[in-house]
Write a structure and sequence with these properties.
Blueprint lengths: L2 H7 E2 L2 H21 L2 H24 L3 E2 L1 H11 L7 H15 L13 H12 L1 H5 L28 H5 L7 H6 L11 H13 L5 H20 L8 H7 L2 H8 L10 H21 L5 H26 L1
Parallel strand pairs: 1-2
Helix pairs in contact: 2-3, 2-4, 2-10, 3-4, 3-5, 4-5, 4-6, 5-6, 6-15, 10-13, 11-12, 11-14, 13-15, 14-15
Amino acid sequence: MKASAVAKLIKWQLPMKRVLYALTPIMAASVYFYGWRALVMLAVVNAAGFAAEYAFARSWKEPVSSAVFVTSCLFALSLPPTLPFWMAVLGVVFGITFGKMVFGGFGKNVFNPALTGRAFIYVCFGDYMTARWSPALPGPLGGLVRYAATPDAITGATPGMLLKTGQEFSLLELFLGNISGTLGGTSALLVILGGLYLIHTKAANHRIVVSAVIGYASMQALLWSGGVEGAADPLRGMLAGSFMIGAFFYATDPVSAPKTNEARWMYGAFIGIMSSLISTFSAWPAGTMFSILLANMFAPITDHFVRALKVRK
């Protein structure tokens, strides 16, 4: 197929391009930390995501939205480095189909498609998603000279889970990301830099990020200072898991997030507070994923409430 024909199949939106630009260093870091299998995972997931959306877009005689690549990349970066490819394909196809296309396609979905797919395989394949993690590959070249970690290097828990048991990690490790975890969620430094780029270019709303951080830090500090079992140090808890990438990249999805500024403050605070509570009190450390999906569900009615209140005033 010619390049011009391929270009007609895809409708590129500038905000989606900016998200992909922000994700590029994070994707490169996933290869450095976990090997070239991370790049293969990204390619496989993007191909499957594009095919899933194209199947609907073709029948509707519409081009595929470039948002599908954002969804696919975010989905792939939320996975363990050693997850079987077929599980990843199943997850992204489910997310695109039931998290987006059944609502009518781009701009009409209620839930974040990437997290919809992740939640599906998180529940279906809990062992693979919670107990099989690859440590960052050692050496100055890291994963640049390896395909993936050896099977005997697979660990049983991420720093986010180990913090619940009282184990501590250096802030430098958590900040740089050379630890076990998801493909794209370990390096707080790259996530923050990418997120700030999104805010600077107006591709993400700062109100959601700020309120989410304040909500998480406040609730986590309250639990930690109160000696609640399983409550991690607020700073380490924020850097160790998926909270940072969730706040900057998933929660700020312009389609599934609220549209009014007042609702955005409430939405972000809800995500931060619920992420802290779920991570502390549940058996699963993926509090951010579930908190964002819950917030997605209430986003439309929150917008409706804010607008109705303004009309009444």
